[in-house]
Amino acid sequence: MTDRDLAWNRLESETVYTCPGFDVINETVQLPDGTETDFDYVAEGDSVVILPVTTDDEVVVIEEWREPVRRINYGLPAGGLEPDDSEPAAAVERELAEETGYEAQRVEHLTTVEPTNGFADTVFHYFLADGCTPTAEQDLDHDETIAVSTTTFEKLLSAVREGELRDGRAALGILYYHAFEA
Amino acid sequence: MTDRDLAWNRLESETVYTCPGFDVINETVQLPDGTETDFDYVAEGDSVVILPVTTDDEVVVIEEWREPVRRINYGLPAGGLEPDDSEPAAAVERELAEETGYEAQRVEHLTTVEPTNGFADTVFHYFLADGCTPTAEQDLDHDETIAVSTTTFEKLLSAVREGELRDGRAALGILYYHAFEA
């Protein structure tokens, strides 16, 4: 299949809702069969997701409230890219320090995926942060309350297997590392 | 950490934008430190994501246009639950037939995750669909154009490793199956 067979033609595009987390874009598009229709998607942008491994070979994990699903979430530190970030790796050190108070000796890109590209333009850049030690100051946004702890990679993988780690963003990073890096 | 330490208190909730794919909910919330603030999230709901394995031990994959990221996406069939679906498994047979024209002999739940619970309530229920044969009629929604093919699981896993399969929804299912089921 080629672009010609599957691609949509964007005719008009308008931001119809804005909030601190995302924008909503409403478009008029032409489908491959020529018909015109509306399509809405969420513009949320790029984030880094970090697998922080300490000098004691433990993983730094966080717990935080996730309002859309109304529960405390157990997972990996993460955060959005900022305009000053020249590349995704630049966000890793900042987000790791802000959310956990840890600093890494070495950062390595693992993979990059679009988690929900049917309705959002979100991109997750996964990084291994190796040789982490608790030397920084946790520095949270006004609406963040984050509890930090450490665990073993084996326990995290078991939590993914049993469906106890329900955060798909963290689960993908753990599974990728297990498959190709561990 | 307990709910008391991390949970937000929902004071008000209002649907502020509606479209065929999702709603946007604006809330007034009280943070753990007592301050009140706004929070917006996307209400998009539950979907099934299907790993369809044929009687010849190949995986049925699809290509479709993804407007939020403006490219043809290579991945696994999936689709939203409908009001009549008594449970997620009920959606598997329908979505598999509609998107691919295949029918399965056996369906098995793999895992359930929230891919982007920082800004959306989206839930993905992963299922293995085993013993698939091309016996149904592809029956697409008005804005779907989907190309169907088959490949080996090893090639899919390699595409995830190399970052060629950029769809995180599909990548998580492939990695979970590789880690715990294959």
From TrEMBL, chains A, B:
<dbReference type="InterPro" id="IPR015797">
    <property type="entry name" value="NUDIX_hydrolase-like_dom_sf"/>
</dbReference>
<dbReference type="GO" id="GO:0019693">
    <property type="term" value="P:ribose phosphate metabolic process"/>
</dbReference>
<protein>
    <submittedName>
        <fullName>NUDIX family hydrolase</fullName>
    </submittedName>
</protein>
<dbReference type="GO" id="GO:0006753">
    <property type="term" value="P:nucleoside phosphate metabolic process"/>
</dbReference>
<keyword id="KW-0378">Hydrolase</keyword>
<dbReference type="GO" id="GO:0016787">
    <property type="term" value="F:hydrolase activity"/>
</dbReference>
<feature type="domain" description="Nudix hydrolase">
    <location>
        <begin position="43"/>
        <end position="173"/>
    </location>
</feature>
<dbReference type="Pfam" id="PF00293">
    <property type="entry name" value="NUDIX"/>
</dbReference>
<dbReference type="InterPro" id="IPR000086">
    <property type="entry name" value="NUDIX_hydrolase_dom"/>
</dbReference>
